[in-house]
Amino acid sequence: MTEDKIPDPRLLFGKTMWARMLAPEHLRKVEAEVTERMVPAGAYVWHKGDIVDQWMGVAEGFLKMSSVSPEGKIVTFSCMLPGGWFGEGSLLKTEARKYDVVALRDTRIACMPMSTFNWLLDNSIPFNRFLLSQLNERLGFFISLVEYDRMLDTDTRVARCLAAMFNPYLNPGGSMQLQISQEEIGYISSVSRQRANQALQVLEKKKLLSVDYGGITILDLDGLRRFPDEGAK
Length: 233
Fold this sequence. Notes:
GO terms for molecular function: DNA binding; DNA-binding transcription factor activity. By secondary structure, the chain is α+β, with helices and mostly antiparallel strands. It has 2 domains: 1-142, Jelly Rolls; 152-233, Winged helix-like DNA-binding domain superfamily/Winged helix DNA-binding domain (Arc Repressor Mutant, subunit A, Orthogonal Bundle), CATH 1.10.10. The chain contains 10 helices and 10 strands. It has helices spanning 9-13, 17-21, 24-33, 88-93, 114-123, 125-151, 154-164, 182-189, 193-205, 221-226, and strands at residues 4-5, 35-39, 44-46, 54-68, 74-80, 85-86, 100-113, 177-178, 209-212, 215-218. The chain is globular, with a radius of gyration of 18 Å. The relative contact order is 0.14. The model has no long low-confidence stretch (mean pLDDT 85).
């Protein structure tokens, strides 16, 4: 898969939280140096163990971050929606990738070279502040997944895991229509596909979401976050 210049950087960076924080001269450098690549559905953006040389963002499409256990079980950690950027941890630690990233549908990826990423760290206080906030949000997200797995019933775990995918820092531009299979929802929530299907039926009856062919539509994001509180109906 080849990388090309972004046809109109304004369409990408106008919707990107950290880019809106940059000084004009810093943004111009980023626009000149970030490239894009197309990844077809089912293909890998990167493999676990790949060498780190870029920070990446989702311009269009849908990705999942996952790994395979020694027993061969696929463990999905998170999904990335348009507007989300990822991989900063590996760049900061200059280590090999710790997980696979796979496109769940045809996806357009923005690729920032490591040299540009490090230049922004050295020259932009707003960029540093954004990264601190994003790393904090990502840590909170993964801690919450452990809490959901250990403390919540299955229906609530599915509701909270779906709601967590719409974090304004991690996935700022996500549509309320989500093309995701019930099997993938099961991976994210640590339940079987059949049990995920049952939970989705419960949440649909509560009018929190609707189950569509090949995905779901979120109808009440705040209700998903608060489910099963009395106010989430």
